[in-house]
Amino acid sequence: MQPGAPDGSAVRVAVIELFAARIAGASPRDLAQRFDADADLTVRGGAGEPPWTGRGSGRAGAAEHFARLGEEADLELFDLVTIRASGHRAVVTGTVRATVRATGLAVVGTFVLDVAVDPRGLITRYRLLDDGWAACGVG
For residue 8, how far is the Cα from the chain centroid? Predict the structure, then answer.
């Protein structure tokens, strides 16, 4: 790392505070305020995948993602395992357990999050990869 370069603490704080707020029951709108107005969001999207996946942008995209996730699944366990940060970017690994309301299936899995923040500490990049098919009983 070059002298004066960000040390990754801002991105660590942003990630931890985002998920702490989610677990504490913050509204999708409140969670979205942690994102930049032009944030790039990708949640392992694609045709035919679980409804909480897809692409979005900005605070509206973040609010929609968290709203759909809250409507579709009941979160039972969420654990951040590793946060590797350098500068304004981090890769986060973790585990999650939830019950999908439409199927009643309990899902236990891992995820990887690629996230970036700007100098204000707002999230500008949010790329979440998980085993969404397992949540539908397909994985």
Answer: 18
Do the Cβ atoms of 109 and 134 come closer than 8 Å? yes
pTM above 0.90, yes or no: no
**Residue 112 forms beta bridges with which residues?**
93, 129
Q: For residues 51 and 18, what is the distance between their CA atoms, to the nearest angstrom?
A: 21
The residues near 45 (Cβ < 8 Å, ≥ 6 apart) are 53, 54, 55
Q: φ and ψ at 11, to 5 degrees?
A: -70, -35
CA terminus-to-terminus distance, the chain: 40
pLDDT tens track, the chain, 139 positions = 444 445 689 999 999 999 999 999 999 999 999 999 999 998 874 445 666 677 889 999 999 999 998 998 898 988 999 999 999 999 999 998 888 898 898 878 888 999 999 999 999 999 998 765 454 444 4
Asked if residues 52 and 68 have their Cβ atoms less than 8 Å apart, the reply is yes
Q: Which residue has the tokens 């942690």?
A: 34
Residue type, 139: G
- Contact in structure between 91 and 113 (CB atoms under 8 Å): yes
